[in-house]
Amino acid sequence: SRKVIFDTDPGIDDAMALLLLHGTPNIELVGITTAAGNGLIDTTTRNALYLAERFRIDVPVSKGQGASLDGVTSSPPVTIHGRNALGDIPLSAVHKKLDPRPAQDLIIDLVRANPHEITLVATGHMTNLALALRKAPDIASLVKDVVLMGGAFGHHDARGNVTPAAEANFHGDPRAADEICAARWPVTIVGLDVTTQTLMTDAYFENLRQHGGQSGRFLWDITRVYMMFHRGLGLDGIYVNDASAAAYVIAPELFKTQKGAVRVSTEGVTLGESVQKADGRVYPPGDWDNRPSVQICTEVDAEGVRSLFRKAV
Ligand code: BDR
Ligand code: CA
């Protein structure tokens, strides 16, 4: 079985990813750390505790950083994920308590306690992972692998979703994303190139609502606001962003990948833009040299992801 730490900003598709990881027998969630993004950090942390309690996911939940490495607090996308970042469903009071450690410390402790066993999955602003790396560079060689939902690399014409250049998770903390891609650990990026290739329609969620028990009904409820936003884009379904990253952890064979150094722009009009120099391409010597090779996803079996998710629910 695979041990996973889930660093997340729930978030509708974050909740989907959590249910997918939790519902997969050979995945062992060992911790949840919260990130800013779909809500301010207090909101996403409350949501993470709520989800853990509601779905009896009995693992430590640690609160992460609210501001990016450069000190920026982004305003949440309330028209996409709702004001409470869970599609504005009513949320009952939460009793589960936070782990006392800040997110980066929980990450460091769990990685050191489980050498070469932990997969880090990050689906919000990636500040916590970068802080963990800065504080304990040794974790790079102790982690099994790192899977990020973020970025857009132009495959299938994927561009930014918060600016023409940048995807939201990378834009929220571009320096963190860049430092994660510069570290010597195996990184796979599940970006908009593939996540926008998988849609889940109302008919799909209706089926989950009918046959998916408590989780199925919950998924129907939280996706109403998200669905409306996607209809506004002219789509008949929602993009499957974070759950695609979870799907990659469970079934990497559903994806095609390409290797090469990745950098994330930390300033100017391209802030948060992600660029890959595919391995084998040769350029004059420069600051792309000596960056590790990162794997990005370029193709996905969308039906495979949908059926994996349906089974987990
Ligand atoms: C990413 O941004 C957030 O809104 C989603 O939860 C996802 O992680 C997509 O760009
Ligand atoms: Ca997210």
Structural topology:
Layout: E1 2-8, H1 12-22, E2 27-34, H2 41-54, E3 61-62, H3 78-81, H4 103-113, E4 118-122, H5 127-135, E5 145-149, H6 168-172, H7 174-182, E6 187-190, H8 192-195, E7 199-200, H9 202-211, H10 213-232, E8 238-239, H11 242-250, E9 255-264, E10 274-278, E11 294-300, H12 302-312
Parallel strand pairs: 1-2, 1-4, 2-3, 4-5, 5-6, 6-11
Antiparallel strand pairs: 7-8, 9-10, 9-11
Bound molecules: beta-D-ribofuranose and calcium ion.
The low-pLDDT segments are: none
E-strand count? 11
- The total of helices stands at 12
Beta content? 15-25%
Bound molecules: beta-D-ribofuranose, calcium ion
Strand order of the largest sheet: 3-2-1-4-5-6-11-9-10
| Major pleated sheet | 9 strands, mixed
Mean pLDDT over the residues: 97
How far is the N terminus from the C terminus? 19 Å
Shape: globular
The Cα radius of gyration reads 18 Å
Q: List SSEs in N-to-C order.
A: EHEHEHHEHEHHEHEHHEHEEEH
Helix content: 25-40%
The chain-level structural class is alpha/beta
Structural features, described:
This protein is of the alpha/beta class. The protein is built from twelve helices and eleven strands. Helix 1 packs antiparallel against helix 10 (213-232), helix 1 runs parallel beside helix 11 (242-250) and helix 9 (202-211) packs antiparallel against helix 10. The strands form two sheets. It has a nine-stranded mixed β-sheet, sandwiched between helices. It has a two-stranded antiparallel sheet with strand order 7-8.
What characteristics describe this protein?
single chain; 313 residues; alpha/beta; 9-stranded mixed sheet; two-stranded antiparallel ribbon; 12 helices; 11 strands; binds beta-D-ribofuranose; binds calcium ion
